[in-house]
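Reopening this one. Same input as before:
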Amino acid sequence: MAALKLCQVLAGAESGGLERHFADLCGGLAERGHRVTAIAHARYADDLPPSVDFVPLDLARSRRNPRALFDLARAIRRVRPDIVHAQASKAAAMVAAVKPWLACPGVATVHNIKRRQRMLRRFERVIAVSGSVARSLQGLKVDVVHNGVDAPASVEASVVETLRNRFSTDGRPLVLAVGRLVEAKGFDLLVDAWRGIDATLLIAGEGPLHDALAGRIAQAGLARRIHLLGHRDDVPALMTAADLVVMPSRHEGLPYVLLEALHLNRPVVAARVAGAADLLPPRWLVPVADERALSAAIQAALSDRERLLDDMAPVWKRAATAFTLDAMVSNTEAVYRRVLNG
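Same output, byte for byte:
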């Protein structure tokens, strides 16, 4: 498609899948020849490639803050984009508030199931990151554009062996969970589910619930079988070394951890949240916040590996083509084309 002037808006100030999506999409669109301007908190400047024009703006204040809304409207008007694209609900609410003063159409991406949807009615199109999210958006013009990632580089066998020797003690299976240590990720449920599981659990990530989780692990007498690893730069290696990846989340959109695991051909057991419910075989999905079902599914996955791998094979094949960064950028361009064609 012809090159466009695009304005991408992010209103948060955290670090996670949403922020990665923002940086990946901005960079991918710029590589396609589009003129991309990213409006976001100054902390994200180093996450974006030089090909993206960056406008630092602190939108982490209240979404109703008059000064923040004035600054946002002024920044977008200076860009004069063909399309403004808001990422997630806070950015969508703020762009919707100033949209009457903008001379361009708007697109908003919804990354999770949301009850408050009024602000989305001001956008010409809404992107949902999964079918589950799309089905929750009634009465809106919705397109599904799955998150996508480049397949992680293969990990050397010696690195995998080193990790297994370090963590897989006494020949126990090795299970990995990855994410910010926050309530939404459900790691407290996973710790409680681990009481009857004879395997080693690694939890990679940082967050405000670290101390609470550490106390929960100690109180349950699981300190030798559950390890909080903190932030890790070698998550692909940890995934490759693990026998199973677990996602006990209370809610999600389409998590990058899941996509990375699938690209690495790793089996996954997950709560039946948006995204996971669309991708994974039903046998390896469990009800949200059901620690007994989670424990049973993990034990079944570890004890019947042949069935687990057979069930996962078609999912891995689909992920290799449908959930790539290239596919995500192409499908987003298609949404822009629909908007501009009316």
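So the earlier flakiness isn't reproducible anymore. For the record, The CA atoms of residues 113 and 136 lie 6 Å apart.
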